[in-house]
Amino acid sequence: MSEQRKLWAVVPVGPFAQAKRRLMPCLAPHERAACARAMLADVLSALGRSASLAGILVVTSDAEAAVMAEAAGALVLADSENAGVSAAAQMAASYLARAGRGGMLLIPADVPLVTMPRLQARFFMKLLTAAVRP
To answer: Are 6 and 102 in contact (CB under 8 A)?
Structure first.
């Protein structure tokens, strides 16, 4: 399959300072940010090991997340509005379409215990489910 036809993994990343708000009762702000950083590192590592992806595109307004993404070999789109996941997905889709690239697979930045085989299995199960629906 040509590189232009392969899927791109798109990872929207919000500001680390605002991450994991549901954990506010039990974690301090710096602990929640550290958790978000660690989870993003795991996601980028898992995606980076996939030969079946054309590339990784991170959409973020967080400077530290952008540095992490670039260090992992991902492209970074600056999300100056920080308008949420849907807006980030639309931004990525527009960018990839303008660049003549293939489709995209939206991957949250905070997938727990992520591995590429788990991501691939989940993706293919969704494809199979969609294919058998009337």
So the answer is: yes
Q: What are the phi and psi torsion angles at 76 (to 5°)?
A: -125, 130
Domain encompassing residue 43: 7-132
Domain count, the chain: 1
2 within some domain: no
Rounded CA separation 133/101 (Å) = 28
110 within domain boundaries:
yes
78 neighbors 66 (Cβ within 8 angstroms) = yes
Quote the DSSP letter at residue 21.
G
pLDDT in tens, 34-89: 999 999 999 999 999 888 889 999 999 999 999 999 999 999 999 988 889 999 99
Integer Cα distance of 132 and 126 in angstroms: 10
Locate the DSSP E strands across 33-98. Answer: 53-60, 75-78
What pTM did the predictor assign? 0.84
- pLDDT tens digit sequence for 81-91: 888 999 999 99
CATH of the domain at 32: 3.90.550.10
Q: Is 1 domain-assigned?
A: no
